[in-house]
Amino acid sequence: MKVSVRRMARWLVHWLTRDRPPAETPLCDFNRLRFELRPCDVILIEGRSRVSDVIRVISQSPWTHATLYIGRIFDIRDPRLRVRVEAHFEWRSGGTAHHRGGAG
Question: Among 29, 37, 47, 84, which residue carries the largest CB count within 10 Å?
């Protein structure tokens, strides 16, 4: 019995959090955004999962998530703080970072 409940729970979580393909036309100009962003800016995000759809209905807003831009990792002057921030990211080829987990 417990196994089937766990299996069903895993399936439900996967179904709710699976992203739909991105829109063909992005809502913003990412090249321009790169030059406009400043540390401490709040970035509003339109999620693509079913959970995001629920958030959108409840909040009556197209934005389902928010993130805080802290700046470029290499601009953090305090070495101890930089190490703590880096611990939450995986580095990809080309120097780009990907968040390792937590709320998504």
Answer: 47
Kindly state the percentage of the chain with pLDDT values over 70: 85
Residue whose tokens read 């090249």: 31
Q: Which domain holds residue 78?
A: 20-99
Q: Angle 2-17/50-59 helices, nearest 10 degrees?
A: 70
- Gyration radius (Cα) of the chain, Å: 17
Tell me which residue of 50, 39, 66, 58 sits closest to 15, measured CA to CA. Answer: 50
Mean pLDDT for the chain?
82
Partners of 90 in the beta sheet? 98
